[in-house]
Amino acid sequence: MASNPMQQFTVHRIGPEIKIAGIDLSFTNASLFMVISAAVIILFLFIGSKEKKIIPNKLQLIAELFYTFVAKMISDTAGSKAKPYFPFIFSLFMFVLFCNMIGMLPYSFTVTSHIIVTLIMALFIFIAVTIIGFIKHGFKYLSIFVPSGVPTVLLPLITIIEIISYLSRPVSLSVRLFANMMAGHTMLKVFGGFVVSLGILGGWLPLGFSVALTGLEILVAFLQAYVFAILTCIYLNDALNLHH
Amino acid sequence: MKRYLRLLIALVATNTDLFAAEAGMPQLDPTYWASQAFWLILVFSILYISILKFYLPKIKDNLDNRENKIKEDLENANKFKDQSEAKAKEYESILEKAKKEVLKIHFESKIILDKDIKSKKESMEKEIEKEILKAQKEILELKKNSISSIQNISESIASNIIENISGDKLNESSIKATVDDITKKNINKYL
């Protein structure tokens, strides 16, 4: 069983079974790692913002770097109108990043490698962005599906394509993150399995691959969190600043 | 390369039970979907609220503080620089003024001194002239006096000589007349 690379993704219940209205809401290992990620973020931010020094110490500097990094990302992609959504995007980026990074630890669980988790986040973003768009622009928001400067003959086709691409946003957003995390961890597990099965003579090559992949996966973990946050910003930008 | 790849795939297949029935994707098992959704929403909401309420304002405050401090310091530095430049200018202008004053004082004092020297010289010259005149007068007086006394002396000498030579006492008035006559004849030689 241990050599099954998908086994690391199984969710199992921890503690008592919690059932509300016939729905199983038990605390699982996935929930545990969500709590751990959130706790690590809160602890990190707590220490990082505890001392208000003019010259920051290391943790304060990192916290401030995260802040300015996300702030710059939002102002670059969505402009100044997106400022009220900064806390949400900051939380989202931190949560995805820390879930990904904590998932890189051996024997841990990667929350973001589950399609349901990423899909809920992506759907929430999709629905929220759509609602924001309709609140800000009313029915004019539908003009997002009708790009300007398109020949009239092509317009119906383009509109259909635009609607499909708009509706597929939550799918692409969630599957991108989920598939990246799952593939990376599966690969690590497969190469880890090779090290064991090829033994002391042949195991060195997959071990090297494993080390290299770990580095790559850390990069991917950061990159996917960044991509997730920046795509949210781009969708938000579409809703806030109609320029079709 | 191809052979190696085939070997790799075979190894993956045999070693990892990839084709086994239970090796599906646990992600697609809906048993715990509701639980994951519930816990995700709960945890993320708590995280979002705590970040929104506590941590972001704190970090923002701190960043603003630092920016303000830097701005303030820069402003102060600029102010002090301006002040120091103004002071340096002031100092230079004072120095310039002082130099001008020195020149002026120097010039004025020179004029005063020249005047003083001139007036002193003039008065001195006048005095000297006066003294010279006085001395000349005195000399003239003395000369005149000396003539009368010379006359007397020569009269007495003449009477004595005559007395000694002839043994007679001549009439004094005649001697006097003779001497007078001679003096009048020769006086212009000495005066």
Give the topology.
The complex is a heterodimer of chains A (244) and B (191).
Chain A: E1 19-20, E2 23-24, H1 29-50, H2 58-77, H3 86-103, H4 115-137, H5 155-167, H6 169-202, H7 204-240
Antiparallel strand pairs in A: 1-2
Chain B: H1 2-16, H2 33-166, H3 172-190
Helix pairs in contact in B: 2-3
Description:
The complex is a heterodimer of chains A (244) and B (191). With 244 residues, chain A is mostly helical. Chain A is 68% helix and 2% strand. With 191 residues, chain B is an all-alpha fold. Chain B has one domain. The longest helix of chain B has 134 residues. About 3% of the residues of chain B have low confidence. Classes of the chains: A mainly alpha (244), B mainly alpha (191). Chains A and B meet through β2, α1, α2, α3 and α4 of A and α1 and α2 of B.
Q: Kindly, what is the distance between the CA atoms of the first and last residues of chain A, rounded to a whole number of angstroms? A: 53 Å
Main β-sheet of chain B: number of strands, strand sense, barrel status?
A: none
How do the SSEs of chain B run, as a string of H and E?
HHH
Could you say how many structural domains of chain B there are in total?
1
Task: Report the portion of residues of chain B in β strands.
Answer: under 5%
For the largest beta sheet of chain A, what order do the strands appear in spatially?
1-2
- Share of helix among residues of chain B? over 70%
Give the largest chain-chain interface (CB within 8 Å). Answer: A-B, 59 and 46 residues
Arithmetic mean of pLDDT of chain B? 83
Quaternary state reads heterodimer
The helix-and-strand class of chain A reads mainly alpha
The figure for the number of domains of chain A is 1
Tell me the fraction of residues in β-strands of chain A, as a range: under 5%
Distance between the termini of chain B: 154 Å
Number of E strands of chain A: 2
